[in-house]
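In response to the reviewer comment on reproducibility (Comment 2.3), we provide here a single inverse folding case reported in full, input and output, so that an independent group could reproduce the run without further information from us. The structure tokens appear first.
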């Protein structure tokens, strides 16, 4: 990693690991420790927010330059120049998480029991930054995490379908972000860095029904860009993927996205809820969960068990 990029990331409270990985404390981990407020993933899926490690094995490598992305993009690469060992990345990620939460130990608002649980994370959100499927040893990393009794949530933009098809083992839960309803909006909003990005995404969607794991389609909704009036187009894409769950989540005006978006691009929770209900009606599904602090709703089959271990 270039020294200037590393300096910028560390200034933003990332812990850079090796040549291409990193950890950063999630806002909701801090909220859970200090105020007992969980993230929507705990509400929907039952993972423990304070025990979740947010990381990426491809911190500065991506196949898209999404306008709504909050991360620093000036140094973005589409491939890894060298590849770190997955066990090194996992060990150092846990070490970094422990160092980052050390200051909470003496906070009178944080219970000792919860802090000790946070010191031993049991869930990994492989979603911090970049496109994690660029890391060629991702399956080995996931396998190591599972052997240690950790669950894994992998978030992908779906532009590397062959990687997902050959991923072994699969994560506990696989997210594919569908943030455009058609190829025109995809090109303008997601700004692909590789050819045939839209076609690759659709190949991934067609692949999802064959995968033996929990699958989620994630819609990042940006007002005046990709939501109003596009529900039928999204429904057709979702039908192709046949996911267990659909998340509709509002864009947040934070980080470097503020250079490209405005506050007006943030949809309200009411607008997100309306979108979720329309999608549900088109697909014969319903709203099974919502979390207003994150402006996110969950759509699934009626009666669908959402929490891990309840299936």
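Designed residues, in position order:
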């Amino acid at each position: 990693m270039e020294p200037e990029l590393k300096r910028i990331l560390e200034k933003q409270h990332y812990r850079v690991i090796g040549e291409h990985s990193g950890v950063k404390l999630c806002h909701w981990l801090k909220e859970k420790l200090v105020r007992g407020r969980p993230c929507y993933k705990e509400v929907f899926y039952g993972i423990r927010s304070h025990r979740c490690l947010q990381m990426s094995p491809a911190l500065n490598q991506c196949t898209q330059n999404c306008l709504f992305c909050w991360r620093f993009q000036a140094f973005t690469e589409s491939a890894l120049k060298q590849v770190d060992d997955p066990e090194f990345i996992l060990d150092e990620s846990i070490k970094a998480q422990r160092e980052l939460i050390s200051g909470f130990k003496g906070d009178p608002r944080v219970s000792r029991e919860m802090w000790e649980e946070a010191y031993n994370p049991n869930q990994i959100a492989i979603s911090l930054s970049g496109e994690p499927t660029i890391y060629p040893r991702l399956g080995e990393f996931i396998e190591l995490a599972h052997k240690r009794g950790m669950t894994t949530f992998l978030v992908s933009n779906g532009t590397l379908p062959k990687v997902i098809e050959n991923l072994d083992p699969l994560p506990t839960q696989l997210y594919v972000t569908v943030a455009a309803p058609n190829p025109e909006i995809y090109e303008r909003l997601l700004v692909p860095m590789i050819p045939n990005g839209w076609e690759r995404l659709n190949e991934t969607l067609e692949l999802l029904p064959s995968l033996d794991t929990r699958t989620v389609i994630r819609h990042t909704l940006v007002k005046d860009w990709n939501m109003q009036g596009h529900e039928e187009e999204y429904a057709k894409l979702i039908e192709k993927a046949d996911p267990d769950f659909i998340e509709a989540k509002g864009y947040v005006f934070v980080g470097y996205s503020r250079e490209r978006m405005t506050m007006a691009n943030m949809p309200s929770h009411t607008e997100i809820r309306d979108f979720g209900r329309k999608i549900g009606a088109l697909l014969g599904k319903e709203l099974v969960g919502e979390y207003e602090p994150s402006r996110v709703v969950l759509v699934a089959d009626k009666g669908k068990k959402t929490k891990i271990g309840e299936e």
